[in-house]
Amino acid sequence: MKWGTAVGFLLFAIMLCQLSCAETHTVRLDGSFLSDKDTVIAGYRADIGAKVDMQCRDTDGKIWDLREIAHGDGFALLGASIRFYVEDAVGHNQYLIWRALDDKMHTFSMRSSGGNYLHAGWNMIDATALFSSWLEDNEPICGFALSCVGGKKGHGVIMRNRISFTVTFSTEEKMGLFSDDRISETEMLDGAFSLLEEGNVFLERYDYTADSLTTAIYPLGVPYYFGGHNENKILQVFYPLQESHYFKADRKYLCGFDCAGYTNWCLRQAGFEEHPDLDSILGRGSDSFFLDPKHPETWPYYCLPGDFITVTHGYDHVMIYLGTLRTFGFDADEVGEAAKYMDYPLVIHCGSNPFYYERYAEYLKEKGQRSITPTDGGVTVSIVMADNRMAQATKKAVWGTTYGYFSFNETPLLIFPLNDCTDFAWYCPSS
C-alpha cells in the first residue's frame, strides 16, 4: 500500500514537472486570399493561388516552421484565429457562412467574433479546428470560404486580401521567444500607460519589457469621472453632468475620464479613429466566441495587445487588453500568490478602484479642498477572472463594494470579476 502511494506521488510529481516544463508561445502568420467582389465570396484555397506562410521568426532571428513545431514533444494547440479587414459592407442582414474543408471534404466549424454578422473594420474567426487539421497533416491543404448574404437593399463587401493568423500553443521543446510572447511598444499603449500613477509596477514593467520611455503624466494617475471625455479639464473641479450610484448632481468632483473617454483619448494619441459607442460595439459582437466568462484564461489565445473588450455589468464598460503576467516578463517568484494565474488576461481601463479614493482623498485634504468628493476610481491595470474567490486580499470601499486584489510591491492588481457581466464583445481599432 505504501509502495503504491509512493508510486502515485512519483507519477504526480513527474506530471507536474512536465507541466512546468511546457512553454506557451504565440506566433503570427501572414497569408492572402482572393475575393470576388461581384458575388461577395472570398476564398482561401491553394488551387487558386492563395497561401499562408507557416514559418515564423523568433526574437533571436531563428526561423521556425509551425508544422515542424507541431510534431515536437508535448505540442498542444491552444487556439488559432483569422483576422481580416473589411473596407466597407453595404446592405442589411449581412452574415457570414464559413466553411472549412480538408481533402476528404470534412467540414470544420469556424465561429465569428461578430456572431453571424460581417462588419466594416476588423473581423476575427476561430480557426482552431482548421489549424489542427493543417498541423496534423503537415500541410495546409484545407480551403475555406465565406459568403455574405444581403437583405432587401442588396449587399456588397470590399475586403483587403491580406489575412493574419494568430496561433497560440504550448510545447516542451526549448524555443526562443517570439515577438508576441512579450508586450511590445505601440503609440496607443504608450498613451494608455502614461495615465497610470507614478511608481505603478505595470508602467515600470511596460517600459522595461517593451523598451519604452513612457512616464506618468499625472503623479496620482487620472481619476474616474462619470461622463469625462475632455483631457483639457482633468483635475479641474466640476459638478457632474451625469449621475450614477456614486456621482451626484449636488456634489463637486475632480474631472477625469470615464471608461470610453479614456480609451478614445488613447486612440487619438496614436492617430486612430475613435471607437463606436459601446452599445454599437456590444450590438455587433455580443456573442463573441472566445469571451467565455467562466474561462477567461482562454482569452489570451485569441486577443492581442491593443484589442478592446466591452462588457455589460449593470452598465457598459470598455477595457484595453494588454496580455498576461507572463507577456510582461514576470516570473512566478515575482508575482507570489498570483503565480497560478500567469496566463490570465490583463486589461487597462478607467474604472472603479478604492485605492484611488484613498489617494485622492489625501490629495484633496492636502489642498484644503474638503468640499470636493474624492473619485471612486481611475486608470487601472486589472486581471480578469471569473470572480473574486481567487483573490490574495480584499478591500471594502467606502461605498460598500468589496474588491479582490493581488499585491505587487506597492501596486495593487485588482481583479475584474465576470460573474455579474451579461454581455461581451471584441473590437479591434483601426487607423
What does this structure look like?
The protein is α+β, with helices and mostly antiparallel strands and 431 residues long. The protein has 2 domains: 153 residues, Sandwich (Jelly Rolls); 241 residues, no CATH class. 20% of the residues lie in helices and 31% in strands. It has 9 helices and 22 strands. The strands form 5 sheets. Strands 19-20-21-18-16-15-14-22 form an 8-stranded mixed beta sheet. A hairpin with a 5-residue loop joins β4 and β5. α4 packs across α6. The longest helix is centred in the N-terminal third of the chain and has 20 residues. It is globular. It starts with a helix and ends with a strand.
Question: Could you give the topology of this structure?
Answer:
Layout: H1 2-21, E1 23-32, E2 34-36, E3 41-44, E4 55-57, E5 63-65, H2 66-69, E6 76-91, E7 96-101, E8 107-108, E9 121-126, H3 128-137, E10 143-148, E11 155-171, H4 187-194, H5 201-209, E12 237-238, E13 252-254, H6 259-269, H7 278-285, E14 308-312, E15 316-323, H8 332-335, E16 346-352, H9 354-366, E17 372-373, E18 377-385, E19 393-396, E20 402-408, E21 411-417, E22 423-427
Parallel strand pairs: 13-17, 18-21
Antiparallel strand pairs: 1-11, 2-3, 3-10, 4-5, 6-9, 6-11, 7-8, 7-10, 12-13, 14-15, 14-22, 15-16, 16-18, 19-20, 20-21
Helix pairs in contact: 4-6
Short characterization:
The protein is α+β, with helices and mostly antiparallel strands.
